[in-house]
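Make up an example, fold above all:
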Amino acid sequence: MKAINSGFVSVITVALFFVQSAHAASAADPYKVLKTSQVPGSGAIDYVYADNDGRRLYVPRGTQVLVFDLDTLKSVGAITNARARGVAVDPKSHHGFCSSSPVVMWDTTTLQEIKRIDVKGRPDAIAFEPATERIYVMSHSQPNATVIDSKDGSIVGTIDLGGAPEQSASDGQGHLYVALEDKDNIAVVDTKALKVTAHYDLAGKGGGPAGLGLDAKNRIIFAFCHEPATAVILSADDGKILATLPIGKGNDSGGFNPHTMEAFSSQGDGTLTIIKENSPTSFEVEQTVKTKSRAKTCTLDAKNDHIVLITTESAPASAQTAPATPPAGGEPAGTRRRAVAGGPNLLDILVVGR
């Protein structure tokens, strides 16, 4: 074998150094609000949801579900007559569902309604379970979970979770983990048998779990709690508590990004907590990002490693718009544009990333 030219090796070594340095610098960059969008309107909001395959962002507001382009944040339509709390999408069947009463089912490509599904209880959180291709509609009253076939919209069954469910996460292997806000534990659901197989108690480390993140590969649950404002980190296999870390106040949503190995928790106090999983036994609060007041629900744009949050705020007083065509001879002397008090509420969409 011929000797490799030492100059060539030096060039390659230098090139690799710069590539590695660039990756290290990128990973060290802090999270920040990259862009925002404001949309006037009215009505309450709750969970925001990113359809990563369809590249759409769903925001339930008032009596409709607003739909935006996930990349540009431009409006692309709405699901009307749907007073919903959350949205879930089956990327395979291209069917969307919202947690309303009745549940509305639509075609995610055309946004055309397919059917309405009568369910009991008070629909709140909602999730798609990929292993069984089913939608879980959660309710704080009985039945705690109504399970729907995402292909045809038929009801498969209901489950008594033993408490009031908030956010949930699937491991893709037949288990759904559900935060039970009023019981301070995590319910483990066998998605094939449609029954609860375990409850993982948080042992007083955190109360009122709402948001939930799951590292499915390493079998780790991140339960984000109200009081104390804590992330309780536990094993998905047996519920053993691995660590606790502080988060902001007023959590209502969270998640986990397997690409960056980071869990994230959004809070109503205007903060987003980023937790780094250094190893399956080592965790740290990597950063607390300033967002906006009441931006307490979030979703992951997995393509761009962005976290999207929503909140609302009152529109500021603004000047009355002048007429498009001024009167002949211009406005009368002494005419002043009147200030218009108040205005519509603004929906704020925030995109956080590096």
Q: What stands out?
A: DSSP finds one helix and 30 strands in the chain. Residues 44 and 120 are 22 Å apart (CA to CA). The longest helix spans residues 6-28. Helices lie at 6-28.
